[in-house]
Amino acid sequence: MSNIEEYNEKTFESIKHINEYGNEFWEARELMPLLEYSKWENFHKVIKRAMIACETSNNSVLDHFPEFRKPIVGGKGNIQNVVDYHLSRYACYLIVQNANPRKKSVALGQTYFAIQTRKQEITELEYSKLTEDEKRLYTRILVNNKNKYLFKTAREAGVENFGKFNNYGYKGLYNGETAKQIAKRKNIKESEDILDYMGSEELGANLFRITQTEAKLKKDNIDNEDDACLTHYNVGRTVRKAIEELGGNMPETLPTPEKSIKELEKDELQKIGNN
Length: 275
What we know:
By secondary structure, this protein is of the alpha+beta class. The chain has two domains: 4-120, no CATH class; 125-274, no CATH class. 58% of the residues lie in helices and 8% in strands. It has twelve helices and four strands. Strands 1-2-4-3 form a four-stranded antiparallel sheet. The longest helix has 25 residues, at 132-156.
């Protein structure tokens, strides 16, 4: 594996869980093989070192490393309840910092979780001091996470065609434009994510659309795809109207950045690697 992207959606993010409160977590025994550990005894030592680091930094071990029992099939088909942990993103960061750096996956994991953790824990004051590229990276992380919550809520509301559902939101916010039409206007490939080619202001508008749609679906107890799509459209229109009333820039008039989010991530990875 050669770069951070292979340890993004395909690996670390792919094993992420979301609990009933919308909080993300990873299971230690699922993380273990991704970091090239084959024996739990060895990986458990890494977890213990991470717990010490957590405690030293005045953070609660119980909050970041809650223990639970996981049933697995043992020898002769017997079910065994083994120790496992629900890890926060910060816990994962501490684990990769305390794992064997000679393992290539660990080295990449250190960079990945360092980037993600730093972006998630930024304060409003710190955000105001960021460059435009840094704001884009940070806001894109938020959009990515909130989109997962939205799609989970939409699925529970009866949505099956997520492409259709997504387009209704875009059509509301972008005065009738679909994702395909936005991509064409931005002159990017259909295979690329249009969210990766938005500035911080445009990402912020979409973040508001996403969070408000999720809240509206829950509040109105939407239970079918048609009503969910209509809700997404109406929220998009409402966000657009709010921007207009505030005298802001309509999202379709905002410039398309020269570099995509993935290119910015590569640049940041290179900076970290050179330090």
